[in-house]
Specification:
This protein is α+β, with helices and mostly antiparallel strands and about 240 residues long. It has 5 helices and 12 strands. The protein has 2 domains: about 5-55 and about 90-130, Elongation Factor Tu (Ef-tu), domain 3, CATH 2.40.30.70; about 140-244, no CATH class. A 6-stranded antiparallel barrel has the order 1-2-7-6-3-8. A hairpin with a 2-residue loop joins strand 6 and strand 7. The N and C termini lie far apart (about 55 Å).
C-alpha cells in the first residue's frame, strides 16, 4: 500500500502540545501536481481533511484523553481520536474559508505546521450527518474540561447547525454552557424537557448542542413576553431557568 502526499499544512501551531482542543485556523497548500483535483472545490463550504500525523507514536493501542483529563481513564485508540495510533491518519471536518490558487484556508484544523495531507474530500450533509447516532454520556468529560474548551465546542456545534454564528446561535451556546456548568451534565436526560423562547437559528443550535432530532419533544419553543433569551429545564429535580 502506498500513500501519496497531496499537500502540506501551514499553521501558526508548530508543536503538538500547543494545539488547542478545538483545532486552529490553518492553510492547506496543495502540491502543483494535484492542481486539477481542486476544480470546483469552491462550491463546497466544508471539507474532510485527512492528514498523516508524522510525529505520532504508532505503537500506542490504548490512551487517555490527557488534554481533557487523564482521570477519565484509558480507551482503545479505535474508540478515541488520539493522534497516537497504528496508522496515524487524522480526520477533520473543516470550514473552507478561502481558496487562493493552491492554498485552501480553513478553520479548526487539528494538525500542526508541516503535517502531510493525505486526502481532501467534500463534506456531504445528507450522508455524513447522522443526528440519530448514539454516543457515550460525556457528562464527566464536560465537568473536567476547561471553560475555554467547553465554550469552544458548543460554539462550533452551534455554528454547524446554523450555518453561521449569528446572535441567536451565540445566545444558545451561552445558555447551553450555563446549563452544563450548573447541572454537571452533558445533555438532557430522558425525563427532562427544555423550554425556551429562542426561535429560528437559536432553536436549531440547541437541538445540535443537546444531540436531539428536530422531531424530539424534549425541546419546546414557547411564546414569552421576556426580551431576554432563556432556557428552562423541567425534570424530576424540579425546574431550573437560565437567562442570557
Amino acid at each position: 500500500m502506498r500513500l501519496r502526499c497531496v499537500g502540506v499544512v501551514r499553521s501558526a501551531v508548530k508543536r503538538r502540545g500547543d494545539m488547542k482542543l478545538n483545532g486552529a485556523r490553518a492553510a492547506i497548500v496543495v502540491r502543483p501536481a494535484f492542481s486539477r483535483a481542486l476544480h470546483r472545490i469552491r462550491r463546497h463550504s466544508h471539507l474532510w481533511v485527512l492528514c498523516w500525523l508524522h510525529q505520532a507514536d504508532r505503537r500506542v493501542l490504548r490512551a487517555a484523553p490527557r488534554k481533557i483529563s487523564a482521570t477519565l481513564g484509558e480507551s482503545g485508540v479505535f474508540a478515541l481520536r488520539s493522534p497516537d495510533r497504528p496508522n496515524p491518519i487524522s480526520l477533520s471536518c473543516v470550514r473552507l474559508l478561502r481558496v487562493r490558487g493552491l492554498r485552501l484556508e480553513v478553520d479548526a484544523l487539528d494538525a500542526i505546521d508541516g503535517t502531510p495531507v493525505v486526502d481532501i474530500k467534500p463534506y456531504s450533509p445528507g450522508i455524513d450527518s447522522v443526528p440519530a447516532a448514539r454516543q457515550p454520556d460525556y457528562s464527566r468529560k464536560y465537568r473536567l474540561t476547561t471553560d475555554e474548551f467547553l465554550r469552544g465546542i458548543l460554539t462550533r456545534v452551534a455554528r454547524n447547525n446554523c450555518g453561521n454564528l449569528g446572535p441567536e446561535a451565540r445566545q444558545a451556546a451561552a445558555l447551553a454552557f450555563r446549563y452544563i456548568r450548573a447541572s454537571g451534565r452533558a445533555a438532557l436526560g430522558r425525563r427532562e424537557v427544555l423550554r425556551t423562547n429562542l426561535r429560528g437559528p437559536g432553536l436549531d443550535a440547541l437541538y445540535g448542542m443537546f444531540g436531539l432530532r428536530p422531531s424530539s419533544r424534549s425541546i419546546r419553543a414557547v411564546v414569552s413576553l421576556s426580551h431576554s433569551p432563556w432556557i428552562e429545564i423541567r425534570g424530576r429535580a424540579g425546574t431550573r431557568r437560565f437567562e442570557a
